[in-house]
Automatic annotation (TrEMBL):
GO terms for biological process: carbohydrate metabolic process. It comes from Actinoplanes auranticolor. It comes from the Bacteria. The lineage of its organism: Bacteria, Bacillati, Actinomycetota, Actinomycetes, Micromonosporales. This is Glycoside hydrolase family 65 C-terminal domain-containing protein. Residues 1-56 form the Glycoside hydrolase family 65 C-terminal domain. It holds the Pfam family Glyco_hydro_65C. InterPro entries: 6-hairpin_glycosidase_sf (IPR008928), Glyco_hydro_65_C (IPR005194).
Length: 90
């Protein structure tokens, strides 16, 4: 089963991509607040997938939009080593 738990890094407002899985074409569009899953193929059957641990079904005539959950950083932001700051001469 396909499973997604998308999140965008700061500075990227939207990401859209297609996945072909078991002869099905799924388009995924992610913004900072939500993800939309839409089928674009000839098969009328629904496609079951998982979004952030929750099962959803998508059909050709009914895309499924779900809210993204807030992310908490697992680790602190890494620091540049001394003398290696971006833009410095090496």
């Amino acid at each position: 089963m396909l499973a997604f738990d998308p999140a965008l890094p700061a500075g990227i407002e939207r990401l859209s991509f297609a996945v072909r899985w078991r002869s099905r074409k799924l388009r995924v569009t992610v913004t900072a607040a939500q993800a939309t899953y839409a089928l674009h193929d000839e098969d009328p059957r629904p496609l079951a997938l998982v979004h952030a641990g929750t099962g959803i079904e998508v059909t050709n005539d009914r895309p499924h939009t779900v809210a993204l959950h807030e992310r908490v950083a697992a680790l602190p932001t890494p620091q540049q080593p001394p003398g290696r700051r971006p833009g410095s001469e090496q």
